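Folding Task

Wanted — backbone structure
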Amino acid sequence: MYDVARIRADFPILSRQVNGRPLVYLDNGASAQKPACVIEAMTQMYTQDYANVHRGLHTLSNISTERYEAVRGIIARFLGAPSEEEIVFTTGSTEGINLVSYAWAAPRLQPGDEIVLSIMEHHANIVPWHFLRERQGVVLKWVEIEPDGSLPAEKVLEAIGPRTKLVAITQMSNVLGTAVDVKTICAGARERGVPVLVDGSQGAVHAPVDVADLGCDFYAITGHKLYGPSGSGAIYIRRDRMEEMRPFLGGGDMIATVSRDAVTYNSAPVKFEAGTPGIVQQVGLGVALDYLMGLGMQNVAAHEAALRAYAEAKFKGLNWLHIQGNARDKGAIFSMTLDGPAHAHDISTILDKRGVAVRAGTHCAMPLMAHLGLTATARASFGLYNTTEEVDALVSALELCHELLA
C-alpha cells in the first residue's frame, strides 16, 4: 500500500512552515526535495568516508571508490540498461545532452544535416543543437504540438527526412506535462536508420523507465529532480553509439597514458568522465534511486495520476483559470494563467504568502511559450509526497489570487 503520510515523514523539509503556514511544495518540476536517507548518506560520506576516488590505495579512497562506482549499477537497474558500462556519470541532463552534442554529433554532422526536435523541448535539449546550427550549418527541424498539447509519434516520424541524423525528444514536457510515446518514435526512427536521444529529466521521475524496451540510443537523467542532490546525474548511451564517440572533456581519469607526444584514452564509460567527479553527489543519487525503487515507480505513477485527476476536477470549477495543455496522457504538471492582468510572478508571490511554492516564468522553454502566445505561466508540479489536501490548499490560494488580481 502506498502510504503518503509515511513517505512525507521521510522528507524533513516538508514539516516546516513558510510565511506562518505549512509548506505546500509544488515546485518539483524544477527540483524535488530530498529524503532523510539521502541527506544522511551524504553526511556520512563527508564526515566519515570522504576521499578522492580511484588510484588512492588508502582505506578512505577505497571506501569512496566502492560507494561511488556502485552507483553506476544502481542507475543501470533504475533505467533498465543492459549494462552499467553504458552509464556515463554527469552533473545532470544538461551535461549529458551536451556530451552527445560534442562527442557524438559534432564529429559526424555536416552542413545541411538535420536534427528533429519538438517545440516543447527544454532549453537543455535545444541550445546544444543550436551550437551545431551556428558552428556547422546543421538544420533544426521543429515538430509542432497539437492544440491539446499532445505530440503524436507519427508527427515526429513524418519529420524525419534523408538528411536527418538525430531525433532529440523529451519524454515528458516540463511545462505541459505531456507524455510522449518515445517507444514508437524510437522504433520508427530505427527503421529509418536515425538514432534517438530522449530527455528523461521529467519522464524518469514520474513513471518506470526501461531504456532497453524503449529502444533509444541516449537517455539523460538529472539527479536533483529524482529526489537526489543537485550536481548529480547520468546518461545512458547504447554501447554501439558509445564506440562512435570521441572524448569531450580532457583530464584525469579519462586517460590511460599521457606523454609529451601522445595520449591514449581509458575505456568507456570512464573516458567520458574527466576530472574529480561529484563523488558525494553521485552517492546521494544512488541512495535516492534505491529509495524510489523501494517505493516502486509504478506506485509513484499511480499516486501522481490520482493527484492529477483530483486537481483537474477541482480546476474545472475555476472558470477564470486556464491550464495550458490537456493531453490525455500527461503527468501531474499544470502551467496556469488567470483571466485579467495577473502576471505569473504576481500569482507565484501571492501563493507563496499562503505557503504554496510554485514556479513562475518561461520554464526554460521559450520556443513553447512563443508557440502558446504567452510570456510566462505559473507552474504547479506534483511529486510522490504531495496530497489531495495540498491540491485544496493550491485551489484556495488561487481563489485568493483571482480576488486580488482580477
